[in-house]
Automatic annotation (TrEMBL):
Gene Ontology CC annotations of this record: axon; cytoskeleton of presynaptic active zone
Protein name: ELKS/Rab6-interacting/CAST family member 1-like
Keywords in alphabetical order: Cell projection, Coiled coil, Cytoplasm, Cytoskeleton, Phosphoprotein, Synapse
Superkingdom of the source species: Eukaryota
PANTHER family: ELKS/RAB6-INTERACTING/CAST PROTEIN (PTHR18861), ELKS_RAB6-INTERACTING_CAST FAMILY MEMBER 1 (PTHR18861:SF1)
Biased composition (Basic and acidic residues): 593-607
Organism listed in the record: Carassius auratus
């Protein structure tokens, strides 16, 4: 694309006369006023001068000032001597400035195919990398900075601010959705008590909707992470630009040491960077909190699914037991009530487990706060009060342990009555072991708090926090006492159920005696029983078929999920390719804009140089050739942009077709 760009950078030797020209220069094109003009009032190419450079007459200076007025506002005077800096290499240029200073109107990437236009010194800095401010620059150089670059800098800062506002707005929406989901989960936890009601299908549909919404949240979280990475990349680019600007300012200060007495202008950009950095950190914290909330929601949903599956299995087993025993309809209803009460007891146990987890989290937060506030503090005279409070907490924890032991005893009684299955017993044993581990963990944390609170000073704050903890523990104790009463009620209900079961057995014995008395009816009943057995076998066969169908459907579902995941990955890859192509198109558009600006500046220079002497005709021809070359490059860039847009459209169509298929 840039193959036609040529540059000539021949080194001059001590600013010798006009006869020692480089072979790449045109024979009659004069130099820029920055490098010294090679002609005097009478002669066009062979003037005499000292080793420091050439001086010009007032007429030539005025004509050249009029010709180069569009490029920069700096001109030569009668006594100005142009020399290159001692620490920068020299370069031969027919337009622009010397190798020591880089103008904003000259791009160092491509300057056309004209042999009279050089790309600048090797040590010069590309002006494309300068995006912010002209602070620490001399006033003469500060005036050369166009206002469009400052506007571009302000526009980039405003864009970053708008992006941050949008991300914050999305975070607030996600928080609101999480709150709504928590409220729905709490309502669903309350509605689980009525699990055997006709609302079971509705609750399952709600769970499916919640799972789909959680997937949508994960996708939104991934998008927010990508935006965060993009913002980090932009901030890093801004830091690099600031560093480049500081280096340029140092170079300009070195140049300004040659011309003292010029005021310096400075603009503050570090404040904006610090503000953006602070907003970025705050956004990262909010994203971390959102991720934690999402993980907690997923854990809660998994626990609910596990409890529901265990309950379904226990219910199926109880129904099979009842069918095998051949109980009456009334006994079936009573067994249903008993299983419902057992499910309620399981829900109470899970609720207690969640309360213990909350208490554990609160203790962790309290320990971190105390460690942060009272680290390295001297011992106070009122630590005894804190120790008494800790002892109160220990007593409350022991009361909680006693409540857990009571629960264990009641569960063992239920096991002895035969109301629980083997799997439920194992689950309850695991839960009780978890409760014991939680209690031990709470004891260890309380001991750690004892060691840390011995170094505290601010007793009022500690007392307030500990009072809050005591109130929370009281609430937990009240909940445990309430659960104890509920479990006692359930125990009494189980006893009544056992009595009713024994009564039903006696009733069955009476029925058997009556059946022995009625032999004729027994045969009919036997035939009916055979028919019922056949029906049961048919039902079992249908159930087996349905179970096989369910397994096949689950396998198909897994394969479909894998295909969907692959399609999503393909869509992500296509989107990334589209983004890359968009960035390429934007870069090409920016290059086109830069080339158009260079064309306008070159056209203005050509118009201004038409009023000059006949020696500038050769320069005009070379400039026109350069403009033609630039127009060719622009046409090539436009063609490349069209090709990129076509490729982008084709890739979008292909991605859409693949997603539809």
């Amino acid at each position: 694309m840039y193959g036609s760009g040529r540059s000539v950078g021949k080194v001059e030797g001590n600013h010798s006369g006009g006869s020692n020209q480089s072979p790449g220069r045109s024979p009659r094109l004069p130099r820029s006023p920055r490098l010294g003009h090679r002609r005097t009032n009478s002669s066009g190419g062979s003037g005499l001068g000292g080793p420091g450079g050439k001086t010009l007459s007032m007429e030539n200076i005025q004509s050249l000032n009029a010709a180069y007025a569009t490029s920069s506002p700096m001109y030569l005077s009668d006594n100005e001597v142009v020399t290159s800096g001692p620490d920068l290499p020299k370069s031969t240029m027919t337009l622009g400035r010397s190798g020591g200073r880089v103008p904003y109107s000259v791009r160092t990437t491509v300057m056309g195919s004209s042999p009279n236009i050089s790309t600048g010194a090797p040590g010069s800095v590309s002006t494309d990398a300068i995006a912010f401010g002209d602070h620490h620059m001399p006033s003469t150089l500060a005036s050369t900075v166009p206002h469009s670059l400052r506007q571009a800098r302000d526009n980039t800062i405003m864009d970053l601010q708008t992006q941050l506002k949008e991300v914050l707005r999305e975070n607030e929406l996600l928080r609101k959705e999480v709150d709504v989901k928590e409220s729905k989960l709490s309502s669903s936890m309350n509605s689980i008590k009525t699990f055997w009601s006709p609302e079971l299908k509705k609750e399952r549909a709600l769970r499916k909707d919640e799972a789909s919404k959680i997937a949508v949240w994960k996708e939104q979280y991934r998008v927010v992470q990508e935006e965060n990475q993009h913002i980090q990349m932009t901030i890093q680019a801004l830091q690099d630009e600031l560093r480049i600007q500081r280096d340029l300012n140092q170079l300009f200060q070195q140049d300004s040491s040659i011309c003292p007495g010029e005021p310096l202008t400075a603009e503050l950009t570090e404040e904006n960077f610090q503000r953006l950095h602070g907003e970025h950190e705050r956004q990262a914290k909010e994203l971390f909190l959102l991720r934690k909330t999402l993980e907690e929601m997923e854990l809660r949903i998994d626990t609910q699914k596990q409890t529901l599956c265990a309950r379904d299995e226990s219910i199926k087993k109880l129904l099979e037991m009842l069918q095998s025993k051949g109980l009456s309809a009334k006994a079936n209803e009573e067994d249903h009530e008993r299983t419902r009460r057992l499910a309620d007891a399981e829900m109470h146990i899970h609720h207690l487990e969640s309360l213990l987890e909350q208490r554990e989290k609160e203790m962790v937060l309290l320990r971190e706060d105390l460690h942060r506030r009272f680290e390295g503090a001297p011992e106070s005279a009122k630590t005894k009060a804190l120790q008494t409070v800790i002892e109160m907490k220990d007593s409350k924890i022991s009361s909680l342990e006693r409540g857990l032991r009571d629960l264990e005893d009641e569960i063992q009684m239920l096991k002895s009555n035969g109301a629980l299955s083997t799997e439920e017993r194992e689950e309850e044993m695991k839960q009780m072991e978890v409760y014991r581990s939680h209690s031990k963990f709470m004891k260890n944390k309380v001991e750690q708090l004892k060691d840390e609170l011995a170094q505290g000073e601010d007793l009022k704050k500690q007392a307030a926090e500990l009072q809050q903890e005591v109130s929370a523990i009281d609430q937990v104790k009240q909940n445990l006492s309430r659960k104890d009463t509920e479990l006692l009620g359930l125990q009494t209900k189980l006893e009544t159920l056992t009595n009713q079961f024994s009564d039903s057995k006696q009733h069955i014995d009476v029925l058997k005696e009556s059946l022995t008395a009625k032999e004729q009816r027994a045969a009919i009943l036997q035939t009916e029983v055979d028919a019922l057995r056949l029906r049961l076998e048919e039902k079992e066969a249908t159930l087996n078929k349905k179970s096989k169908q369910i397994q096949e459907m689950s396998e198909e579902k897994g394969t479909l999920n894998g295909e969907i995941h692959d399609l999503k990955d393909m869509l992500d890859v296509k989107e990334r390719k589209v983004n890359v192509l968009q960035k390429k198109i934007e870069n090409l558009q920016e290059q086109l804009k830069d080339k158009e600006k260079q064309m306008t500046s070159l056209k203005e220079r050509v118009k201004s140089l038409q009023t000059d002497t006949s020696n500038t005709d050769t320069a005009l021809t070379t400039l026109e050739e350069a403009l033609a070359e630039k127009e060719r490059i622009i046409e090539r860039l436009k063609e490349q942009r069209d090709r990129d847009e076509r490729e982008k459209s084709e890739e979008l169509d292909s991605s859409r077709k693949s997603s539809k298929s």
